[in-house]
């Protein structure tokens, strides 16, 4: 099937990435990506943008040349309590909040600690999608995490970059997460985790895993703008009226 939504991208605001918002737009048009989220790293990362970057995302247009832009963040899970590195009083200004483990902010510990931190993040209500939960550097109790994600309607990401450029060794964990999500009723998001615009919407490994697992299409957020936006609205995000045209065409 065709996937038209990418919920995980980085710009030059995260200085280990190489593209601007403008760079992403023609690639989106060429690849049929109708809606993508800009999700630069949270402020606790060494080269992340200042929190003002995220507060000021409101200056971005909603739609450029038929492509919708979601204002987001890939926050860092900071503690076992599920804290993230973005202020609660500014979360309401974001359309989408991803959060995940990154070694410079949360050094790897043990399976029990990782599981507790991830589940507490899920339960916190602050986060819509857990980024790259299959990272082998942070082993988790997959069934427990997926069960919590299903209960609290937080999506789990299948991260295409994990199979190619980063977090090598993720495949078996990701496969187990997809299978558990299939059986326990959890939602999945696809993230290219692009650090350069050329890889926007590259989901070949994501597609392979969900196809092999027989994952139900109706719980894949990447399938259409309406699928993702409806999910976010159920989680309490406001309706974005400008995206009505994207939903109608999905």
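Q: What amino acid sequence fits the structure above?
A:
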């Amino acid at each position: 099937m065709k996937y038209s939504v990418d919920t995980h991208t980085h710009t030059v605001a995260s200085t280990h990435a190489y593209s601007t918002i403008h760079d992403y737009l023609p690639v989106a048009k060429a690849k049929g990506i109708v809606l993508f989220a800009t999700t630069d790293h949270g402020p606790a990362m060494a080269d992340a943008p200042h929190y003002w970057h995220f507060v000021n995302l409101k200056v971005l247009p909603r739609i450029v040349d038929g492509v919708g832009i979601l204002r987001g963040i890939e926050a860092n899970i900071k503690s076992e309590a599920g804290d993230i590195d973005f202020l609660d009083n500014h979360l309401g200004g974001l359309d989408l909040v991803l959060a995940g483990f990154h070694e410079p902010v949360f050094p790897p510990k043990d399976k029990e600690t990782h599981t507790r931190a991830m589940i507490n993040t899920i339960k916190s209500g602050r986060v819509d999608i857990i980024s790259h939960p299959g990272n082998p550097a942070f082993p988790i109790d997959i069934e427990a995490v997926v069960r919590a994600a299903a209960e609290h309607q937080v999506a789990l990401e299948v991260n295409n970059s994990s199979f190619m450029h980063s977090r090598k060794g993720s495949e078996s964990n990701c496969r187990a997460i997809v299978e558990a999500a299939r059986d326990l009723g959890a939602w999945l998001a696809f993230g290219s985790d692009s650090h350069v615009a050329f890889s926007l919407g590259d989901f070949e490994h994501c597609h392979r895993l969900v196809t092999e697992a027989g994952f139900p299409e109706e719980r894949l957020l990447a399938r259409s703008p309406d699928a993702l936006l409806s999910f976010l609205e159920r989680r309490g995000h406001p309706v974005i009226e400008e995206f009505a045209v994207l939903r109608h065409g999905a």
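Q: And what stands out in the fold?
A: The mean pLDDT is 96.
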